[in-house]
Amino acid sequence: MARIVISEFIDERALPALRAKHEVLYDAKLVDDPARLLKEAATADAIVVRNRTQVRGDLLAALTKCRVVGRLGVGLDNIDVPGCEARGMQVIPATGANALSVAEYVIGSALLLLRGAYQSTGAVTAGQWPRNALSNGREIAGKTLGLIGFGSIGQLTAKLARGLGMEVIAFDAMMDGDHPAYAAGSVRAVGLDELIVGADVISLHVPLVDSTRNLFDAQRIASMKRGAVLINSARGGIVDEVALAAALRNGHLGGAAVDVFGSEPLPASAHFVDCPNLLLTPHIAGVSAESNERVSFLIVDKVLEALR
Length: 308
What we know:
- The chain contains twelve helices and twelve strands.
- With 308 residues, it is α/β, with parallel strands linked by helices.
- α5 (99-115) packs across α7.
- The strands form two sheets. Strands 8-7-6-9-10-11-12 form a seven-stranded parallel beta sheet, sandwiched between helices. A five-stranded parallel beta sheet has the order 2-1-3-4-5.
- The chain is globular, with a radius of gyration of 21 Å.
- β6, α7 (152-163) and β7 form a beta-alpha-beta unit.
């Protein structure tokens, strides 16, 4: 019987399968108690985390018995994957399980920001009638969606966008332009610069690595089409937050949705205060009732398989 430590929230309906075969410590607040987390890690044969638990440094050193790291999500920037593998630990992400949740977040954000008419409830209930001010919203059909990163999430986002009448272009540094996924999704492969200047909506779907850190700096944001919308549901650190806020304030960008930040939780941040046409969400693009169920059961199954 192995000992499994789960340091962040999981759909508890998935736990009986683990507990039937192994000892399980589940505490969704364990991530917030570093000393206890290190103590529990010392006797763990497997650890299951989300994005806040940093499987590196002291925690990685404490995982002396660990064979498996289950990630309730897909991003791995909170896990020292080479360090884990060097210690014989298998790292298992929930690949594909939250793709639909992220894709719907992207399309929903694009619809809201392009139309710009869905935040008038307060004014209307107060007796105002801002009909003229809200009559210049834009339709999503006929607009061009640019996807930076064309893995499973990008491909599903493209499918939803095409269903709404969008043209879709994509750039992925890890895929050749003749990759069959482009033709399968009726998506045109383009270079990064062509995508940035041509897209009405840009959505990011890349990991945070050296080549993507600060990818959207002030210069790249300035090269986007005037009135374009930028959506980041990938990782904080890819977009220069100060430059993004400035582009919204000066009217160069038509809107932005940001779900991930360079520092999380986002501290009180003057550059985003009262910023126009901006949606901020607390790293939940991939988290829905349905995706949490899929992610939780997938990781439980894969951890059980790895521990056999």
